[in-house]
Amino acid sequence: WLLAHDALGRAQPFFAPIAAALALSTSATRRARRIVQMLAGVLLGIGVGEAASAVMGTNALTIGIVVLVTMAAALVAGVGFFSEGMMFVNQSAAAAILVVALHRAGTGSERLVDALIGGGVAGIIGVGLFPAQPLALLRSAEREVLRSLAGALGRVGDLLSDGIRAEPGWTIAAAQDIHRQLAELAQARLTARANVRVAPRRWRLRGEVAREDQRISQLDLLANAGLSLFRVAIDALDEGESLPRELCANLDELAKVLGLLAAAAQPWTEELRAGAAARVAATVDALAPVSAPRAPILASLVRATGRDLLAILAEP
Fold first, then answer.
1. Are the beta carbons of 251 and 229 closer than 8 angstroms?
2. pLDDT tens, 244-285?
3. Distance of alpha carbon 10 from alpha carbon 166, whole angstroms
4. Are the CB atoms for 254 and 277 separated by under 8 Å?
5. Would you say the pTM of this structure is higher than 0.90?
Protein backbone atom coordinates (compact mmCIF):
# COMPACT_ATOMS: atom_id res chain seq x y z
CA TRP A 1 0.00 0.00 0.00
CA LEU A 2 2.84 2.37 0.85
CA LEU A 3 4.53 1.85 -2.51
CA ALA A 4 1.37 1.99 -4.61
CA HIS A 5 -0.53 4.68 -2.72
CA ASP A 6 2.17 7.00 -1.37
CA ALA A 7 5.06 6.48 -3.78
CA LEU A 8 3.07 6.11 -7.02
CA GLY A 9 0.08 8.21 -6.01
CA ARG A 10 -2.56 5.58 -6.70
CA ALA A 11 -5.94 6.46 -5.13
CA GLN A 12 -7.17 2.94 -4.29
CA PRO A 13 -4.44 0.36 -4.80
CA PHE A 14 -6.30 -2.28 -2.81
CA PHE A 15 -5.12 -5.15 -4.98
CA ALA A 16 -1.42 -4.55 -4.21
CA PRO A 17 -1.55 -5.71 -0.55
CA ILE A 18 -4.07 -8.40 -1.50
CA ALA A 19 -1.68 -9.74 -4.13
CA ALA A 20 1.19 -9.79 -1.63
CA ALA A 21 -0.91 -11.63 0.96
CA LEU A 22 -2.12 -14.18 -1.60
CA ALA A 23 1.39 -14.88 -2.85
CA LEU A 24 2.81 -15.32 0.65
CA SER A 25 -0.18 -17.26 2.02
CA THR A 26 0.37 -19.37 5.15
CA SER A 27 2.52 -21.95 3.39
CA ALA A 28 6.26 -21.63 2.88
CA THR A 29 6.23 -24.07 -0.06
CA ARG A 30 6.63 -22.90 -3.65
CA ARG A 31 6.30 -19.18 -2.91
CA ALA A 32 8.31 -18.10 -5.97
CA ARG A 33 6.08 -20.18 -8.22
CA ARG A 34 2.91 -18.82 -6.62
CA ILE A 35 4.11 -15.28 -7.33
CA VAL A 36 4.77 -16.01 -11.00
CA GLN A 37 1.47 -17.91 -11.34
CA MET A 38 -0.41 -15.00 -9.78
CA LEU A 39 1.17 -12.45 -12.11
CA ALA A 40 0.51 -14.57 -15.18
CA GLY A 41 -3.08 -15.17 -14.10
CA VAL A 42 -3.70 -11.45 -13.53
CA LEU A 43 -2.25 -10.65 -16.95
CA LEU A 44 -4.53 -13.18 -18.64
CA GLY A 45 -7.60 -11.97 -16.74
CA ILE A 46 -6.90 -8.33 -17.58
CA GLY A 47 -6.56 -9.14 -21.27
CA VAL A 48 -9.85 -11.05 -21.42
CA GLY A 49 -11.68 -8.53 -19.22
CA GLU A 50 -10.56 -5.49 -21.23
CA ALA A 51 -11.46 -7.15 -24.53
CA ALA A 52 -14.90 -8.21 -23.29
CA SER A 53 -15.67 -4.78 -21.82
CA ALA A 54 -14.76 -3.07 -25.04
CA VAL A 55 -17.05 -5.32 -27.08
CA MET A 56 -19.96 -6.01 -24.69
CA GLY A 57 -19.87 -3.23 -22.14
CA THR A 58 -20.17 -3.76 -18.39
CA ASN A 59 -23.14 -5.80 -17.20
CA ALA A 60 -24.00 -9.09 -15.52
CA LEU A 61 -23.92 -11.00 -18.82
CA THR A 62 -20.42 -9.69 -19.57
CA ILE A 63 -19.16 -10.81 -16.17
CA GLY A 64 -20.62 -14.30 -16.68
CA ILE A 65 -19.08 -14.66 -20.12
CA VAL A 66 -15.76 -13.23 -18.95
CA VAL A 67 -15.55 -15.74 -16.11
CA LEU A 68 -16.37 -18.62 -18.46
CA VAL A 69 -13.87 -17.56 -21.14
CA THR A 70 -11.11 -16.67 -18.68
CA MET A 71 -11.31 -19.91 -16.72
CA ALA A 72 -11.48 -21.94 -19.92
CA ALA A 73 -8.41 -20.12 -21.28
CA ALA A 74 -6.60 -20.55 -17.96
CA LEU A 75 -7.33 -24.27 -17.91
CA VAL A 76 -6.04 -24.65 -21.47
CA ALA A 77 -2.94 -22.54 -20.76
CA GLY A 78 -2.42 -24.00 -17.28
CA VAL A 79 -0.11 -26.87 -18.13
CA GLY A 80 3.24 -27.74 -16.63
CA PHE A 81 4.44 -24.89 -14.44
CA PHE A 82 0.98 -23.25 -14.25
CA SER A 83 -0.95 -26.45 -13.53
CA GLU A 84 0.28 -26.69 -9.91
CA GLY A 85 -2.51 -25.55 -7.63
CA MET A 86 -5.34 -23.15 -8.41
CA MET A 87 -3.49 -19.82 -8.14
CA PHE A 88 -3.22 -19.28 -11.91
CA VAL A 89 -6.86 -20.10 -12.69
CA ASN A 90 -8.31 -18.27 -9.68
CA GLN A 91 -6.33 -15.10 -10.25
CA SER A 92 -7.23 -15.09 -13.94
CA ALA A 93 -10.94 -15.13 -13.15
CA ALA A 94 -10.64 -12.64 -10.26
CA ALA A 95 -8.70 -10.12 -12.35
CA ALA A 96 -11.19 -10.38 -15.22
CA ILE A 97 -14.13 -9.77 -12.86
CA LEU A 98 -12.43 -6.73 -11.31
CA VAL A 99 -11.71 -5.22 -14.72
CA VAL A 100 -15.33 -5.55 -15.80
CA ALA A 101 -16.99 -4.67 -12.47
CA LEU A 102 -14.79 -1.63 -11.80
CA HIS A 103 -14.39 -0.69 -15.42
CA ARG A 104 -13.06 2.72 -16.28
CA ALA A 105 -10.14 3.97 -18.29
CA GLY A 106 -6.93 2.42 -17.05
CA THR A 107 -8.53 -0.19 -14.78
CA GLY A 108 -6.63 -3.07 -16.39
CA SER A 109 -3.27 -1.35 -16.23
CA GLU A 110 -3.88 -0.35 -12.61
CA ARG A 111 -4.62 -3.96 -11.64
CA LEU A 112 -1.46 -5.08 -13.43
CA VAL A 113 0.64 -2.48 -11.59
CA ASP A 114 -0.94 -3.57 -8.30
CA ALA A 115 -0.13 -7.20 -9.06
CA LEU A 116 3.47 -6.36 -9.94
CA ILE A 117 3.92 -4.35 -6.75
CA GLY A 118 2.24 -7.00 -4.57
CA GLY A 119 4.17 -9.83 -6.22
CA GLY A 120 7.44 -7.92 -5.94
CA VAL A 121 6.92 -7.21 -2.26
CA ALA A 122 5.98 -10.85 -1.66
CA GLY A 123 9.15 -11.92 -3.47
CA ILE A 124 11.33 -9.63 -1.40
CA ILE A 125 9.74 -10.76 1.87
CA GLY A 126 9.09 -14.44 1.19
CA VAL A 127 12.07 -15.29 -1.02
CA GLY A 128 14.68 -12.65 -0.28
CA LEU A 129 14.40 -11.62 3.37
CA PHE A 130 12.60 -14.56 4.98
CA PRO A 131 12.98 -17.63 2.74
CA ALA A 132 11.76 -20.99 3.92
CA GLN A 133 14.10 -23.17 5.95
CA PRO A 134 14.78 -25.96 3.43
CA LEU A 135 16.16 -28.50 5.91
CA ALA A 136 13.28 -27.92 8.31
CA LEU A 137 10.78 -28.42 5.47
CA LEU A 138 12.40 -31.69 4.42
CA ARG A 139 12.62 -33.05 7.94
CA SER A 140 9.06 -32.09 8.82
CA ALA A 141 7.73 -33.83 5.71
CA GLU A 142 9.90 -36.88 6.47
CA ARG A 143 8.50 -37.10 10.01
CA GLU A 144 4.94 -37.08 8.70
CA VAL A 145 5.63 -39.90 6.24
CA LEU A 146 7.27 -41.97 8.98
CA ARG A 147 4.38 -41.20 11.35
CA SER A 148 1.81 -42.31 8.80
CA LEU A 149 3.70 -45.52 8.02
CA ALA A 150 4.24 -46.29 11.71
CA GLY A 151 0.55 -45.87 12.45
CA ALA A 152 -0.55 -48.06 9.54
CA LEU A 153 1.94 -50.86 10.15
CA GLY A 154 1.41 -50.75 13.90
CA ARG A 155 -2.33 -51.17 13.42
CA VAL A 156 -1.72 -54.05 11.01
CA GLY A 157 0.54 -55.73 13.57
CA ASP A 158 -2.17 -55.45 16.22
CA LEU A 159 -4.78 -56.90 13.87
CA LEU A 160 -2.51 -59.79 12.93
CA SER A 161 -1.72 -60.55 16.57
CA ASP A 162 -5.41 -60.55 17.50
CA GLY A 163 -6.48 -62.33 14.31
CA ILE A 164 -9.29 -59.87 13.62
CA ARG A 165 -10.28 -58.00 10.48
CA ALA A 166 -9.77 -54.29 9.99
CA GLU A 167 -12.82 -52.09 10.33
CA PRO A 168 -14.51 -51.14 7.02
CA GLY A 169 -12.77 -48.29 5.23
CA TRP A 170 -9.62 -48.34 7.36
CA THR A 171 -7.36 -49.72 4.61
CA ILE A 172 -8.39 -46.99 2.17
CA ALA A 173 -8.07 -44.25 4.78
CA ALA A 174 -4.59 -45.42 5.84
CA ALA A 175 -3.40 -45.67 2.24
CA GLN A 176 -4.78 -42.21 1.45
CA ASP A 177 -2.96 -40.73 4.43
CA ILE A 178 0.35 -42.25 3.32
CA HIS A 179 -0.13 -40.99 -0.24
CA ARG A 180 -1.05 -37.54 1.07
CA GLN A 181 2.12 -37.37 3.16
CA LEU A 182 4.19 -38.51 0.17
CA ALA A 183 2.67 -35.70 -1.90
CA GLU A 184 3.59 -33.21 0.83
CA LEU A 185 7.10 -34.65 0.86
CA ALA A 186 7.39 -34.17 -2.91
CA GLN A 187 6.33 -30.52 -2.53
CA ALA A 188 8.83 -30.01 0.28
CA ARG A 189 11.66 -31.47 -1.82
CA LEU A 190 10.80 -29.21 -4.77
CA THR A 191 10.63 -26.18 -2.48
CA ALA A 192 13.95 -27.00 -0.78
CA ARG A 193 15.76 -27.44 -4.10
CA ALA A 194 14.31 -24.21 -5.50
CA ASN A 195 14.98 -22.39 -2.25
CA VAL A 196 18.74 -22.99 -2.28
CA ARG A 197 18.88 -21.98 -5.94
CA VAL A 198 16.88 -18.75 -5.67
CA ALA A 199 17.21 -17.37 -2.14
CA PRO A 200 20.66 -15.81 -1.53
CA ARG A 201 20.39 -16.45 2.21
CA ARG A 202 20.13 -20.20 1.54
CA TRP A 203 22.91 -20.63 -1.05
CA ARG A 204 25.34 -21.89 1.61
CA LEU A 205 22.99 -24.85 2.29
CA ARG A 206 23.07 -26.23 -1.25
CA GLY A 207 25.37 -29.14 -0.48
CA GLU A 208 23.60 -30.09 2.74
CA VAL A 209 20.15 -29.89 1.15
CA ALA A 210 21.32 -32.00 -1.80
CA ARG A 211 22.57 -34.73 0.56
CA GLU A 212 19.41 -34.65 2.67
CA ASP A 213 17.22 -34.71 -0.44
CA GLN A 214 19.08 -37.74 -1.77
CA ARG A 215 18.63 -39.61 1.51
CA ILE A 216 14.95 -38.74 1.79
CA SER A 217 14.27 -39.93 -1.77
CA GLN A 218 14.44 -43.45 -0.32
CA LEU A 219 11.18 -42.73 1.52
CA ASP A 220 9.22 -43.36 -1.69
CA LEU A 221 10.52 -46.93 -1.81
CA LEU A 222 9.90 -47.38 1.92
CA ALA A 223 6.31 -46.12 1.63
CA ASN A 224 5.56 -48.32 -1.38
CA ALA A 225 6.90 -51.38 0.44
CA GLY A 226 4.86 -50.44 3.52
CA LEU A 227 1.68 -49.99 1.45
CA SER A 228 2.13 -53.40 -0.17
CA LEU A 229 2.88 -54.93 3.22
CA PHE A 230 -0.25 -53.83 4.99
CA ARG A 231 -2.44 -54.51 1.93
CA VAL A 232 -1.27 -58.15 1.75
CA ALA A 233 -1.68 -58.48 5.52
CA ILE A 234 -5.24 -57.12 5.38
CA ASP A 235 -6.09 -59.55 2.57
CA ALA A 236 -4.75 -62.42 4.69
CA LEU A 237 -6.89 -61.35 7.62
CA ASP A 238 -9.99 -60.95 5.44
CA GLU A 239 -9.61 -64.53 4.24
CA GLY A 240 -8.95 -65.89 7.73
CA GLU A 241 -5.38 -66.96 7.03
CA SER A 242 -3.31 -67.84 10.10
CA LEU A 243 0.12 -66.19 10.13
CA PRO A 244 3.12 -67.11 12.31
CA ARG A 245 3.44 -65.06 15.48
CA GLU A 246 7.14 -64.47 14.72
CA LEU A 247 6.20 -62.65 11.51
CA CYS A 248 3.69 -60.50 13.40
CA ALA A 249 6.40 -59.66 15.95
CA ASN A 250 8.80 -58.65 13.15
CA LEU A 251 6.19 -56.36 11.64
CA ASP A 252 5.43 -54.85 15.03
CA GLU A 253 9.13 -54.14 15.61
CA LEU A 254 9.39 -52.28 12.31
CA ALA A 255 6.36 -50.18 13.23
CA LYS A 256 7.90 -49.32 16.61
CA VAL A 257 11.19 -48.21 15.01
CA LEU A 258 9.29 -46.06 12.51
CA GLY A 259 7.32 -44.48 15.36
CA LEU A 260 10.51 -43.86 17.33
CA LEU A 261 12.12 -42.10 14.37
CA ALA A 262 8.99 -40.05 13.65
CA ALA A 263 8.94 -38.77 17.24
CA ALA A 264 12.68 -38.04 17.50
CA ALA A 265 14.15 -34.59 16.91
CA GLN A 266 16.16 -34.17 13.73
CA PRO A 267 18.88 -34.43 12.69
CA TRP A 268 18.99 -37.84 14.33
CA THR A 269 21.83 -38.51 16.72
CA GLU A 270 24.42 -41.13 15.86
CA GLU A 271 23.27 -43.16 18.86
CA LEU A 272 19.65 -43.16 17.65
CA ARG A 273 20.67 -44.09 14.11
CA ALA A 274 22.85 -46.96 15.29
CA GLY A 275 20.25 -48.28 17.71
CA ALA A 276 17.42 -48.12 15.18
CA ALA A 277 19.57 -49.69 12.46
CA ALA A 278 20.54 -52.55 14.79
CA ARG A 279 16.89 -53.25 15.63
CA VAL A 280 15.86 -53.22 11.96
CA ALA A 281 18.79 -55.42 10.91
CA ALA A 282 17.95 -57.93 13.66
CA THR A 283 14.35 -57.98 12.50
CA VAL A 284 15.35 -58.64 8.89
CA ASP A 285 17.82 -61.35 9.88
CA ALA A 286 15.26 -63.06 12.12
CA LEU A 287 12.85 -63.71 9.27
CA ALA A 288 12.59 -67.48 8.87
CA PRO A 289 10.95 -69.55 6.11
CA VAL A 290 7.22 -69.89 6.68
CA SER A 291 4.58 -72.02 5.01
CA ALA A 292 1.31 -70.10 5.27
CA PRO A 293 0.06 -69.05 1.79
CA ARG A 294 0.73 -65.34 2.15
CA ALA A 295 3.45 -65.58 4.77
CA PRO A 296 6.35 -65.74 2.26
CA ILE A 297 5.05 -62.62 0.53
CA LEU A 298 4.67 -60.80 3.84
CA ALA A 299 8.15 -61.89 4.93
CA SER A 300 9.58 -60.58 1.67
CA LEU A 301 7.79 -57.25 2.12
CA VAL A 302 8.94 -56.95 5.75
CA ARG A 303 12.48 -57.58 4.51
CA ALA A 304 12.14 -54.96 1.75
CA THR A 305 10.69 -52.42 4.18
CA GLY A 306 13.51 -53.04 6.63
CA ARG A 307 16.17 -52.64 3.97
CA ASP A 308 14.65 -49.38 2.73
CA LEU A 309 14.58 -48.13 6.32
CA LEU A 310 18.23 -49.08 6.78
CA ALA A 311 19.10 -47.02 3.69
CA ILE A 312 17.34 -44.01 5.22
CA LEU A 313 19.18 -44.51 8.50
CA ALA A 314 22.55 -44.52 6.76
CA GLU A 315 24.63 -41.38 7.13
CA PRO A 316 23.89 -38.84 4.36
1. yes
2. 777 788 888 889 999 999 999 888 999 999 999 999 998 888
3. 63
4. no
5. no
